[in-house]
Amino acid sequence: MKNYQVSFSLTLITSQKKAFLFRMACLLIAVCLFLPARAQMNKRIYQADYDAKTVKFGYFVGIPFTHLNMKFNNYFMNSANNNYAVSSPTTIGLKLGGVANIQLNDYFDFRILPTVALYNRKIDIRYIDPASTPPFEERKESRESAWFELPLMVKYKSLRRGNVRMYVFGGVRYAIETNPIKRRNATQFNSKASDFSLEYGTGLEIFREYFKFAPELHFSHGLANLVNRSSAAGTTMEGIDRLTTHTVTLYFLFE
Question: What fold characterizes domain 2-254?
Fold first, then answer.
């Protein structure tokens, strides 16, 4: 019974996440089609000498959609474990930060994006309580946290066409939680306070008279295991072998 319920739960979650990623991709495609069309209506070339500057600075606002990926261990399937389904819903956060862009040549740039990120990651647990009627219960655990993140990216850009230019990028992101709380209550799960992830994405530069605007879509896959073994006993984390982050973020950059 537990195997069937876990399989069904994971299938449903995977379908929901695929639908979410599809909507995000459609949104970016719509932006990429609409904004360049408007920009090309004006034949004037803005900031024609933009690429003559080696180092450029800006700032950004980001809207992250994040959840946790889980790999369960043998204890999760043990009859002594009352949890029969554990999942992580997608939640929305906020990112603010700056960008330093160093031009390497006509096609490649190196970027540093120091970031302050606010997340509220959640875990939904369905479990069996023999004292209840019916015995199936549900509880939620969350972790509200502020992180300092330092992404290092290599950017590959196309040739500029009028006032627009497409680009792709990839790199790594190191993150550390700035407000870890050692003592947590029953509604808060405990995990490690640092993360390392692989990140990539695409964006569109739109040049205006006094600034450059660039919407970007970032995909981040956590590589570090966030399970804190020292405090996992007797908690939801006891049945989880590997816990990693996954985040899709829509950025709005201004330079």
Answer: Porin (2.40.160)
